[in-house]
Fold this sequence. Notes:
The protein is an alpha+beta fold. The protein has helices spanning 35-48, 81-90, 110-128, 149-158, and strands at 6-10, 14-20, 23-31, 54-61, 67-71, 96-103, 131-135, 137-144, 162-167, 170-176, 190-198.
Amino acid sequence: MLFKNNYCEIVDENFNSLIIQKSKFISYAFKVYDLNQVKRKLDLLKKKHKKANHHCYAYVLSLDSSIQKSSDDGEPSSTAGKPILNQIKINDLTNILIVVVRYFGGKKLGISGLINAYKTSSNELIKKCKIKSKEIIDIYEIEFEESNKHNLLNAIKKNNFKYENLNQGACDIHVKRSYTKSLENLNIFLTNKKYLSSE
């Protein structure tokens, strides 16, 4: 299980546009939850901006931000994707894809200029986004003696846990990670407790 109690996401998709040394940088932020969504968003932008020179991007997925990738898409190594990814990480965001589309303006920016341009583009974009912090919810499968069902349900209600899939002797409970210690209040009713996943 994870040690963080919260994670941060953007609320809505957004975009921003900058002109830097005659090159146009159009940045887009998308809320994404899997690699298929990432691919679809990239494909759509490549169709929308067919004449662009570069479609550089970075994404972070999962509640623990364990899935990360960046792409320079033809720009010199680590001058585009990495600065975008760094801005995502600095703002502690997950489930996000940022794409910066560049139309070359005829003037080369150099390595430091490119790094600064992609950093600035993604930073300005993130500033425009509304960000929401969400609590991580862990799901536990619990088993109980049928004779304790009434007492167990009272304890679940008292601790403000959500439950589902209630059947004979078992159910799933949804617990805010910050409230995990409250599970100790249920232990007297349980015959088994198994962590399933996070919402």
